[in-house]
């Protein structure tokens, strides 16, 4: 049902099939489950949100994921984005500041039999240099200004990074590593909670 709602705006059939196969209600609070298949963001623990399905689908489509890709996911949150990434790639490393969210996400993915995800509780601003380079990097929280250099440096040749950028006005930015260097492209307007560094408290 949700995949069909998104079809007019999302052309990638692999992305639509992944969305159709992951039960979004497993990733929302019990009190919000009646809204799980609405095309809206919903609150989760720790003051965070599970993103609007259309935005999730557009980010997945923009990443041009292949079954052999190694993917870094910044901002695990509910784990919904990581679950979809896991269906579309070889392995996902997902990073979250809040241990409570990490554990909830792990339980949700384990219950679905998704076993190609590695979890880290850390400052996502730094990426995960021990596992770099990555073919794709997904950032599910907004960067107020410049995209962290660490994330750009962790892109493999041909790698793609999708990140919401901006404070009061946000847009998705896709950065691709090419032979000529890093090439950014501005995409649609979005709204995400900010990516908070450990030093921010």
Termini separation comes to: 40 Å
What is the strand tally?
Answer: 9
What fraction of the residues are assigned to beta strands by DSSP?
25-35%
Mind describing the biggest β-sheet?
Answer: 7 strands, mixed
Strand and helix order: HHEEHEHEHEEHEEE
Helix content: 25-40%
Query: How many domains is the backbone divided into?
Result: 1
Computed Rg: 15 Å
- The CATH architecture assignment turns out to be 3-Layer(aba) Sandwich
Round the mean pLDDT to the nearest integer and report it: 93
Describe the structure.
The protein is α/β, with parallel strands linked by helices and 201 residues long. The protein has one domain (2-200): Rossmann fold (3-Layer(aba) Sandwich). Helix content is 25%, strand content 28%. It contains six helices and nine strands, in the order H-H-E-E-H-E-H-E-H-E-E-H-E-E-E. It has helices spanning 2-6, 13-21, 53-62, 80-88, 99-111, 149-153; strands at 42-43, 49-50, 70-74, 91-96, 117-121, 134-139, 155-165, 170-178, 181-190. The strands form two sheets. Strands 5-4-3-6-7-8-9 form a seven-stranded mixed β-sheet. The chain has a two-stranded antiparallel sheet with strand order 1-2. Helix 4 links the parallel strand 3 (70-74) and strand 4. The longest helix has 13 residues, at 99-111. The model has no long low-confidence stretch (mean pLDDT 93).
């Amino acid at each position: 049902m949700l995949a069909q709602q998104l079809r007019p705006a999302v052309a990638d059939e692999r992305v639509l099939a992944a969305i159709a196969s992951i039960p979004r209600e497993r990733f929302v609070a019990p009190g919000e489950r009646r809204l799980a298949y609405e095309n809206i963001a919903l609150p989760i623990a720790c003051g965070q949100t599970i993103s609007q399905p259309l935005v999730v689908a557009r980010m997945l489509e923009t990443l041009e994921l292949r079954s052999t890709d190694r993917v870094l996911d910044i901002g695990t949150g509910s784990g919904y984005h990581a679950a979809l990434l896991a269906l579309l790639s070889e392995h996902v490393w997902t990073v979250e500041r809040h241990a409570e969210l990490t554990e909830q996400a792990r339980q949700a993915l384990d219950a679905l039999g998704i076993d190609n995800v590695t979890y880290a509780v850390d400052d996502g601003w730094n990426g995960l240099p021990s596992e770099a380079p990555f073919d794709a990097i997904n950032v599910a929280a907004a960067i107020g200004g410049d995209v962290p250099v660490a994330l750009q440096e962790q892109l493999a040749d041909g790698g793609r990074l999708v990140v919401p950028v901006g404070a009061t006005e946000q847009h998705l930015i896709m950065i691709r590593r090419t032979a000529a260097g890093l090439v950014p492209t501005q995409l649609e307007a979005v709204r995400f909670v900010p990516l908070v560094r450990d030093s921010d408290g």
